[in-house]
From TrEMBL:
Organism of this sequence: Lentinula raphanica
A single cellular component GO annotation: mitochondrial inner membrane
Pfam families (UniProt xref): AAA, AAA_lid_BCS1, BCS1_N
Protein name in the entry: P-loop containing nucleoside triphosphate hydrolase protein
Chain intervals with Basic and acidic residues compositional bias: 507-560
Polar residues bias (residue ranges): 317-336, 428-437
Amino acid sequence: MNTLKNALSPLSLNAGAIQDTLKLVVIGGTVETARRASMSAWNGFIDSFFLTAHFSQEDYPYDWLMHWLSKQPAWGRSREFEITTRSVGRHGLTQTTTGDLEEEEDGDDEEALIHGRRKRKVAFMPSVDTTHTIYYRGHWLRITRSKRYPDYGNSGSLKISVVARNNDILKKLVLEAKRDYEKDAEHRVHIFMADSTYGCWRWNGARQKRPMSSIVLQPGVKDMLLADCRDFLCSEDWYAERGIPFRRGYLLHGVPGSGKTSLIHSLAGELGLDIYVVSLSSKGMSDNTLTTLMGNVPSRCILLLEDLDAAFTRSVSRDSSSTGAPKEATASTSVPEASDGSTLSLSGLLNSLDGVAAAEGRLLFATTNHIERLDPALSRPGRMDVWVNFTHATKWQAEGIFKCFFPSQPANPVASNPSASSSSSSVETVTDASQKNLPGPRRKSAHSIPLLTEEEISTLAKTFAEAIPEDELSVAALQGYLLKNKTRPRECVEEVAEWVIQERETREKLKKEKAEKEAKEKKEAEEKEKKEKEEKEAKEKEEREAKQKLEGNDAKDSKTEQAATPSETSSSSSTSASAEEKAASSTSTSVSDNSSSSSVDADTEDSVTSEEESDKDGSAAVKEATKEKWVAVSNPASASNPATTDVQSSSP
């Protein structure tokens, strides 16, 4: 018993510490259980009542909400913000907030120019990666703006959370932001450019809408195009019922500066469509890239292919002498063209326009200055359904452009007859419907244009049109002249005849300079070609002479070697055949002079023949030297004549 008591005595002494430890364990477990229960309850509450919407900067709803947030007072009163002067949104809309800093003393003249530019406005924008709270229709919105990739500009995102049972509040928010955005953006046309490097579309800016009344074409052309486009956009079901691809193509061809691109811009503003521009001659354009771009085009837009005749060439000249086809690669141009990376083919272009993967619902507009250079497969109906020819300005167009530049005051004053003025304004609204969606003047014009009566403007316009030659000057030239005289309507008409003469002289001068330049370039090219030909011929001649000289030296050396071999053989054999030579000499002296001379001639011929044979084959001469030996014997009868004769002796 004592032993057991002594063993349990330490435990009885530490009973208080154990009890405290157990209490701490229980308390900690209770707290952790409560925390987990609360977190589970909060997560359940969030899942049941909190709604979160995410918006990416690559899509339109992001722009809608950012534009809507810029008008909210709470957005401008953020506790954490960025100060910037770049308050223009991605689509050209000015994003100003209620907290923007403005100069009070200059508040009346916000659009004043300072040294050619407008005053900069300081804008306060909420910071990135910060949560902001806005009260909207009885709900608190928690908004967080962040950037997924800080190194890239257009990579932001927007997250909006709200406590609600359903997503009706978020739907109302998005629709309200969309209506507000479209209301402010209805006067602009958005331009998107094709990025051949990444195969995507890049927003290039927003342009002010251009009224259809500012486009002066031949009577009925504008109305025909506008009616055809509207009919196509409303005929999707009709196309589907008949199994026809829902696509429409327009080919605008004619002289440069005749208003083809301006007409497309005006049609886009009138129809409320965006413009997607593709440059077929851009660097890196290929069949796969073009097919990808065409497949990503929205269903309701204008797809523009400018300068279709220059699609497969890098030439900077588009005159009548240019064929539009790529030039053959030369030694100087093969390297740059090989590194261009553009592999677009005509087959790839045709498949991207109306292939299986081509987008539907778009209006395709193609422009060209030389329709004769287009392949028939590219301009056939089904790809280019409507053709419109643009020519130089006519007298009718000149009159219309003049009236467009110089407005006229109403014939009946408002004070004298208000009812008539209201009726005339209503008639004007109906006759010029393209002006209804244009914004009004936001500031006073810096140019004081005199307002003339309608009769005087009509008279000046007719006088101006009579001075313009028919189908000689471009519409762009007329517009440039009127821009220089936009505040001088009367002087503009008085000086137009002199301007026409100057234009003709300028054209003749440019034509002459161009002809001289072409002649000079042609002459330089001929001289260069002639010089290169002469250098080539001289080089070939030098190579030929050097080759002949080398061959001659080789032949001479070979003859010398061949001639040295027989002489050595004959000298060695002369010592061994001395007895035979003496016998031969005694025999030859007994022969008469006639026989001696004839034998000398015969032996001489035999000697020449044997020498030629020895020159042909030196080795054969060495072998035959053992059989036939040639000995030089002087004729004692002819001591005065140093000529020698050759006698052939056969070896035994």
